[in-house]
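Re: the 127-residue chain
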Amino acid sequence: VQVEESGGGLVQAGDSLRLSCAASGRIFSSLAMGWFRQAPGKEREFVAGITRSGGRTDDADSVKGRFTISRDNAKNTMYLQMNSLKPEDTAVYYCAARKASSYSGTVVTTTSGYEYWGQGTQVTVSS
């Protein structure tokens, strides 16, 4: 499975960005997906996750109400809509995927729970 992120960039505080993650090599709807981020000097952390069906999502407290995860199984693509961006959102954002037996199930929030990772896309928010 290959996953590739796109959509990062440099924005100002309060702006919006939408990240995309395209997956190939396996039926997309068989994969549960997630977004993680890593700031300089910090550990990689969970941002948001979504089940195979897209019917269940979860996100970190730090982004609740600002970020929205979604997926389009027909387009083999997952998205992260980021609104009201803050300087503390600055990080490399990674797309992650895992084979999931359940079409719904629960969202996995740990890095060890995901098998496939993209190279990351930089998001920089200036104050």
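The two ends are 37 Å apart (CA to CA).
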